């Protein structure tokens, strides 16, 4: 007598888990990854976000979705992450059996504007003044994008002024004259925002 083997397939709601770095830097691209186990295969997914981790709503930006397989390993990418993305996220997955809900993860977005310290140094012999700038950003902050000096609140460059850069923000004023008197400030900008130094007041240099 021929034996018949009966195989029973157990259908369950999807099992869903999502993962993200504990903190991400302002301005960077963030990707929330997922692990989905489902029999039968999923037929629908939905990413949701929440301010308090309790009341979730569907994310309104479908262009953020990225995945090689949208149902088995869906991911959610946020380009140019800002503080408005500092929320709770979760993933819902449906199959023919029902709905699976992932754990909720909190996206901690970190970052602050550049920090600035300034001083100045005069050189009587060379008739010059060096406005010394020191810039730094914390490890969890984006790098410096722009640096410039202002005189009486107007951006200055060229002429008898030395060139500056993000790496070397100090400014040398050569052949100092009474025309160079005024209030000088250093400004540095990154993706988070701008910082401006305290005022350096230059008076008439008498030689």
Task: Explain how this protein is built.
The chain is mainly β. It has two domains: 12-110, Immunoglobulins (Immunoglobulin-like), CATH 2.60.40; 115-202, Immunoglobulins (Immunoglobulin-like). It is built from no helices and 19 strands. It has strands at residues 12-19, 24-25, 30-39, 44-50, 57-58, 65-66, 75-78, 88-94, 99-101, 105-106, 109-110, 115-123, 128-136, 144-151, 154-156, 171-173, 182-190, 194-196, 200-202. Strands 4, 5, 8, 9 and 10 form a five-stranded antiparallel β-sheet that branches. A hairpin with a 4-residue loop joins β8 (88-94) and β9 (99-101). It is rod-shaped, with a radius of gyration of 29 Å. The N and C termini lie far apart (118 Å).
């Amino acid at each position: 007598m021929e034996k018949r083997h009966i195989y029973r397939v157990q259908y369950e709601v999807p099992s869903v888990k999502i993962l993200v770095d504990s903190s991400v830097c302002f301005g960077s691209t963030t990707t929330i990854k997922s692990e989905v186990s489902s029999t039968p295969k999923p037929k629908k997914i939905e990413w949701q976000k929440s301010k308090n981790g309790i009341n979730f709503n569907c994310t309104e930006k479908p262009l953020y979705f990225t995945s090689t397989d949208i149902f088995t390993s869906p991911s959610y990418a946020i380009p140019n992450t800002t503080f408005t993305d500092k929320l709770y996220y979760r993933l819902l997955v449906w199959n023919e059996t029902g709905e699976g809900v992932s754990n909720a993860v909190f996206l901690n977005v970190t970052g602050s504007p550049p920090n600035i310290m300034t001083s100045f140094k005069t050189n009587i012999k060379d008739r010059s003044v060096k406005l010394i700038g020191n810039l730094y950003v914390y490890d969890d902050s984006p790098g410096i994008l722009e640096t410039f000096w202002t005189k009486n609140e107007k951006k200055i460059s060229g002429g008898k002024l030395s060139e500056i850069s993000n790496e070397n923000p100090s400014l040398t004023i050569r052949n100092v004259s009474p025309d160079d008197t005024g209030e000088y400030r250093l400004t540095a900008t990154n993706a988070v925002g701008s910082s401006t130094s305290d005022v350096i007041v230059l008076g008439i240099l008498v030689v």
